[in-house]
Batch of 2 targets.
Target 1
Amino acid sequence: MPRQTTVLKAQNLTKVYKRGSEEVLALDDVSLTVRRGEFLSFVGPSGSGKTTLINILGCLDNASSGRLQVGGRTIFDGRKGLSESELTRIRRRVFGYIFQKFYLIPTLTVEENVLLPFAFFRKPGSPPGVFDLLKSLGLEKRTRHRPVELSGGEMQRVAIARALVNNPEILLADEPTGNLDSKRSEEIGQVLKSLNRKEGLTILLVTHNPALARLAQRTITLRDGRILS
Amino acid sequence: MATQINVYQVAAKNLLRKKTRSTLTVLGIGLSAWVLLSLLGFNRGYEAALNKDIDNMGFQVLVAAKGCPYEAATLMLKGGTGLRYMNESVIRDILRHPQVEKVTPMLMQAVFDPNKGESGGINAYLGVDPATFPSLKSYLKFKQGGWFTDAQSHEAVLGYEAAELEQREVGDQLLIPEKNIELKVVGVLSRSGTQDDGTIFVPLRMLQKEFGQEGRVTGIGIKVDRRADISALENKLYDLPDVQVVSMAQVKETIMSLVSTAKVMVLSIALIAILIAMLGVVNTILMSVIERTQEIGIIKSMGAMPGDVFRMIWTETVILCLLGGGLGIGFSLALSKITDILIRRLLPYTPTGSLVAVDSGLAFLTLAVILGIGLVSGLYPAWRASRVRPLESIRSEGE
């Protein structure tokens, strides 16, 4: 497939939250196109709508209005959208997610945590094992360890491995270094950069960290729910 | 290196997170399984033991002097106290009925023995007719000696336990306290597993004479012809004056009605224990689901369908119930003797033999009941977990 294929297309996305009787405009007429293999970072002050936007782009949330297409398939158009089961099918095939918290299961080993998505779905073409993946992330000596025995950076790398195990087309990373010190943040940044450059993985990154945002090919700045640049 | 992990492995490992909570829940389920299986075993065992006692009596109908039916039932099974007498001539009237195959008169007498135990106790003697009684009790085997041959002789045959208690062997003397009558032990019975083990048998005529009860008996055992209709005979025997007729079926019914109160009580305890265990399961799994809301959301973002999450949480419930059920069944099997002793202390009358009959069928039934209850208990937490939306976890992360 050509490198410039559109994988995500958002048009006029608006998201309104209700907070009691008050309505809060989280996204205001946002349009965006993401091409295969792009590395995008979303920056902006707290409450600018970064997380709301990638949640919608990642099919974790619906917009109040607007249109979203993933790989040419319409996820929602106006208020009409896919069912929760259909969204799950899209999510399991297209996306991998990383969050600020790692959400590793403490009673499972590193290897078992990475294999966890296979308990629910195994995408055709996904690797038979996870050793190579763990090795590429520098975790080959930690496979039998439990999360409590790992550093914060290692835990986030395990979470990245877990997000990658089903060969996602797009990796969504919401503040992945929010709980890490600067050294570990840089380490994670290099992992993401490598995944984009070497594997051609499309990455959407939300961050407050300017150094991390600079690793992306394109930086989108949001303020008050609007794209500034 | 592993290449796969399944929902069931994840569920099993989830239970290890809060080991104390999981252990307490398993113990709660185990306790209720123990009570339930013991109760089911008691239901079966008590009736079987009672049937065995009745079958081993050698006669199917007992005629006793009119009085309390419970006393009559006890008299039939245990020898009994609270003695009422009837005239021996009743035997002639009974023998007129063609359904009657054999009869044997019995006289029960009790005396106070000041040397028995710490503060004395009652010694009971059962006067039997050597001409008829042994043939009705053909299952009784002798460890030493044999039956007395003369209905007037001063002799005694001791049941296995009675001989152990009195520390007597064949040839020894046995004194009847109060009356100062010396008897010669001519036989000691082998263990029969019935009430006869604790009985001191003496010749009927001698006992009648020494206790001034000539021509009187406390009971008449009747062996009925196999082909005869027992209830028709009972109805005819009711026409005899001042007697009551206690049949095997009646005895069983009377005793079972006595123990039914105890059964209801134990059943209530079992139900309460099961209810508490059920609430324990709901609490444990629900707490676990609430604590893991974010994690469940992440699992769903990985591609888990609501059914996958439901299955995972339900599996946790099943594992808890299987472990608890297995533990309770193990306890029940290992401690059935202790349960037996406790029940014997609780009930007014208990037959000989094992009161708690636990077998693999009852164990499987208990496991099925516990598992069924567990599955119902796990429905709500599993349903609640399956409804967690991925976004909830991400939103609550920012809060």
Target 2
Amino acid sequence: MPSIQQQNVIKGDNIMNNLIEIKDLVVSFETEEGKVEALDGVEFRIEEGTIHGLIGETGCGKSITGMSIMGLLDNNALIENGEIFFKGKDILKYSEKRLQREIRGNEIAMIFQDPASSLNPVFTIKNQMEEVIRMYQKAGKKEIVKRVMEELSRVKLPDVDSLIYKYPHQLSGGMKQRVMIAMMLSCNPSLLIADEPTTALDVSIQAQFLKILNDLKQEMHMTMLYITHNLAVISEICDKLSVMYAGRIVETAPVRTLFKNAQHPYTYKLIHSVLGVESNLEDLEEIPGSVPRLINPPKGCRFHPRCEEAKEICSKEVPKLKKIGKKHFVACHER
Amino acid sequence: MEDKDLSYENVRDEINKLKRSKSSQLSLVWSRFKKNKLALVGFIIVSIVVFIAIFAPVLTPYEPFDTDPFNRLKPPSWEHWVGTDAMGRDVLTRLFYGARIALIIGVLIILFEGAIGILLGIVSGFFGGFVDVIIMWVVDVLRSFPVILLAMAIAGIMGQGIYNVVIALGLVGWTTYARMVRSKILTIKNSDYVEAAYSIGESRFSVVLRYIMPNAIPTAIIMICIMMPTALIASATLSFLGVGVQPPTPSWGSMISAGRDYLIMAPWISTSAGIFIMITVLGFNFIGDGLRDALDPTTKRN
Amino acid sequence: MKEKLLRIENLKKHFESPRGDVRAVDGVSFDIFKGESFGLVGESGCGKSTLIRTILRLLKPTAGSIYLKDKDITNIPKKYTKFLRKQMSLVFQNPHSSLNPRMTVYDTLSRPFLIHKITTNREETTVEIVKILKTMGLQAEHMTRFPHELSGGQKQRIAIARALAVEPEVVFLDEPTSALDVSVQAKILKLLNKAKKERDLTYFYISHDINLIRVVSDRIGVMYLGKIVEIGDVLKVYNKPLHPYTVGLFKSVPEPDPDKKITEIPLVGEVPSPISPPKGCRFHPRCPHAFDKCREIEPELKPVEDGRLVACHLY
């Protein structure tokens, strides 16, 4: 439970319109080797009209967070605790049926790393787009085709007239990803979750994709949760950023604050381990050791075995996320 | 760097640990297998069947061929737990001796078809090209025949008997192994670690021996466990149809067949043999599934 | 003048496919000098992986020649390639798939020593393995592990150790950190640099990550659709890229800095199919400066300024 003071802080921030708010989410997985504590008290909120980045290394639980919001966790997952308030309602309590009817697709949509797996290979782009649009609005045949064209040109796809008659395998990875975006946007979702959408793309195609997303953000006042491991991509398009480590949020802050004034030792090292235009190898930070397995995670702060500043308390008590600046939260005993 | 650190004495402990860690691989497989309850049940079932097969003479006071004209078609009783058949022979005794026949035929079929199939699968997968085309063509042709009909034809030509059953079923059965092993070899052959092996100068022979075989063997073992029930059922089917093991040799298939005429009067003959087949097949299936999960951690649902 | 270790002349590697030959590498010439670190950047499908595998003679070249220390190795029969394996080795992109899952670290690392008869008995082999493990920042106890018992970074260090164990002249590194988390990337790169100094090695990096290539290389080449479009000193190319593709590629890379954003699309369109590359300059359909000559005549890679080679009609 957050302290009274923290609750006030949360209430104070609520003046901004939070589209979604995740509170103390705990998710575990039952595997043959034991219980994996995948998420342990994840909390952040996304304000309307912003792009919120969720960043972390392999296995930190960032994708599981996205799947939890969509209600698409695997069967062996157990949600032990937490609330996900979407437009003020706890959608974690919704039944599968209700999620499918009221949330998935029309309120929250998701795009994945591999667009090929989300598109049906035996139908043309036109067929698939039409079906999605028909699901959410009633309109005549001509009108729907017009919508399809509109949506596809919005993501700046070239030669839309011939493109709609193509099958997914005839498109490149970048184009498929744009079709996915168009398809998701055609349902007018309030929130779009993107899980590593550019990881499989080349840099030049990624640049095109990021540009389109940035434009869409301006035009449509889109709210988005952008999940990635790539800090450079985050800095391109996100307004606010949560850093995840081993199933916990260690720091949340506006992007600029985080890049210039990272407080958590992990965030600091992470930012300074990314190669930029001006970095050179000797100054590059490395984090000793490797990401812990979540079957038996370290006690206390999960980062403490790799942390240079670790004190005794770090191995005993779990640090709470506390506010240290404007919209800046950090989970570290030393801050 | 201190050279003292690098003397052999200092690393000897590690070498000894190395040996232990290799044996621990086997115990790891066993511990994974043990955790799977169905696999353990399968293991127990199969152990019991094997025990029965080996100690059949000790376990029962009767002989499988001892007829008793005064005790024909007797229902289960204290003297005859599963009753007697039309010739007054003790059914349980015949079931026990039938386990022998079933296991011997099963193992022989597996060995025969497994040896041919795995060898041809490796050759086909590794060498590819013309050899591969020919072998896969033979596989396709053989698989387009109904197995039982083909086996019946072969048994018809060569005569009946245990060994002919083995040959008849084996001649078709190897194709399944060849296909599975071939596809596994193809995956391994195109893997990064095989390319890496070539890149440090490994010879083709060494690649097969050290990289391809160790990674293909689990597949072969799993195949064998999965194919055992198929072999049991196929041999029982042939015996049932009268082209397999011949009476009076006790086999489960021919016992079902013999009991058919008395199904109303003495249902225990056919049903008991059927239940024995079912339980044994189930046991092997459980083991097969358990082994697959234990040997190949990558198939684990995660 | 530095010693030329590798000389590549008009190298081609085509693959047959039902829709025509895939021209993965289509006429590439350059030199690698002893002791340098050469970096080749390009996007997926540009042919960089095929190029190094052809130089390593893991693939048979379609045309052209490869000279290793002035010895023509283009058409050495397969059975004589073993000595090449001792001269050149390769580190793979994905350490999770490049190690034999059924071999312990000891077995994996003992192979190079045994194949090339660098050590003669088990004692020597073990000592050498421990030595190389320490170079890679690992301990003797790691010898007993199987790959699945190691983290991604540790696996890649084992893979690098295997490549160094043959005591090669030149090590090819195929995206050595792209399958790893950023926090371990720096460690791997620093270890590689250290090993290079200690063992007097030559490195040939390939990567799509321009910033990575910049920090690890002395000289870089830029590859597009089977051709090298620009080669030069790393700082010179970075400070002033000349070929329009190089310019666009560099601009496409997002900076980890919220104040620097991609404001316009640097490279329009997509890479054409290597089965039927565009006539003339292969980059002309995407090039903002293309003129008539570009659509007709393929530009040669020629020296322009400060020792740089560029294949573009603008220069």
